[in-house]
Design a protein that fits this description.
There is one protein chain. This protein is α/β, with parallel strands linked by helices. It has helices spanning 8-18, 73-85, 94-104, 119-134, 174-177, 188-198, 221-233, 253-258, 284-287, 306-321, 324-345, 374-377, 392-405, 426-444; strands at 40-44, 47-50, 55-58, 112-116, 138-143, 155-157, 165-167, 180-184, 202-207, 237-241, 264-267, 278-282, 350-355, 358-363, 408-409, 418-419. The protein folds into two domains: 8-71 and 323-444, Aspartate Aminotransferase, domain 1, CATH 3.90.1150; 73-321, Type I PLP-dependent aspartate aminotransferase-like (Major domain) (Aspartate Aminotransferase, domain 2), CATH 3.40.640.10. It is globular. It starts with 7 loop residues before the first helix and ends with a helix. The mean pLDDT is 95. It binds pyridoxal-5'-phosphate (PLP). Pyridoxal-5'-phosphate binds at residues 63, 118-120, 123, 146-148, 208, 213, 241, 243-244, 268, 278.
Amino acid sequence: MNEFEMNSHDLFERAKRVSPGGVHSPVRSFRSVGGDPIFFKTAQGAYLTSVENKRYIDFCQSFGPNILGHRDPDVESVVRTAVAEAWTFGACEPYSLELAEWITSRLPFVESIRFVCSGTEAVMSALRVARAATKRDLVLKFDGCYHGHADSLLVRAGSGLAGSSASDSGGVSSQVASTTVVCRLDDEREFSKAVANFGHELAAVIIEPLPANFGLLPQRREWIEHVVRRARSCGALVIFDEVISGFRVGLGGMAEQLGIKPDLVTYGKIIGGGFPVGAYAGRRDLMELVAPTGPVYQAGTLAANPIGMRAGLATLKKIEIHHVYTELESRAKYFGDWVSAELNARDLPVRLVRRASLFWLHPIPENLGSETTPEAAGERMIRRPDQMHPEAREWYSRFFRHALNAGVYLPPSPYEVCFISLAHTPEILQAAGEILVAAAEKAVK
Ligand SMILES: Cc1ncc(COP(=O)(O)O)c(C=O)c1O
């Protein structure tokens, strides 16, 4: 018996007695992949260790914050110092200032930044600023982009006018849902229609410029430019939700890669180095609307928590000093190309999509052709949810289970993406790649 004197199954049974579904965030429950979730007791680098003492290569990496891997030693030493000095002040301190200055001095579109405790809070606050700035009520989002669990964003496309919406969660009032307009990704015509219908009332258009919550759905540059142009033409603000892509695809996220200056941008995950930190940021005139300088109220007891601020800064500094993006790109490219070539050689109808150190494996829908690599697939990549393979979920649960049994922990949902960290050495990636190809093959049959 281990120190918990229980296995994952027994712990889950106990957890279900005291928490809804036994979890504190739904995707952890394994509902999408079947079976009981594994309980982990430790994490280090690229690995997780379960309460049964089984070690797994981890591609979930807490859904993204750990770009350096679990408990990176340089970040850990900063955190140890921080813990010895102060856990929370609820007062002014220099650590959030250092992180804010570090970011604003590097990202030209971040003129001012406010730290919060999660991505959800960041998005919710950015929308409030947009509504105050424009004195308009509606927000437009895209089906297939996730922006956290604020009421107005838990909506799906409705069946009425182009862009109409309905609530997508119990407890979201229809009045609140009706303040959000929903459009399809990658559809200029529908978006233009929605802007024609609602443009004069739109406070903001919010988009994940690299959607990574319904699989990885790289968008066409011209499409994103179209969205930005049309949003601005109707007086709506442009909000890039870079909670996943920020500090992941590069220091300046997708905004930098696309050369687009969003009015507001939201961050989470990497910015806190594995601690609960989010941020909203952007144009100074907009951020000055936030209390105490402006009328938009937003506050937080644990906002800019010193442990998170110092862990975040240590993470970002290490990324910069050690040229981490270059290293990650070369490792992730080698890994992605190798897996794609192996899938191809085995004639498997499965594709690996990769951007920077994010990747996603999915069965190829018949109407999207059989090319295994995104490059060969060209324009026929999946760019929005309705293009998914109808049996993507079933395939993924088999794939997930085979990978898990062989020692690779993937996000327990077909719609979540995988994260490569600096701790995933070429050797670890090679071993994991072989396991994933074998799992993909077994899952197809
Ligand atoms: C793009 C995006 N926005 C917002 C959120 C919400 O962030 P959090 O889970 O920290 O509330 C997420 C979470 O995965 C996300 O991926």
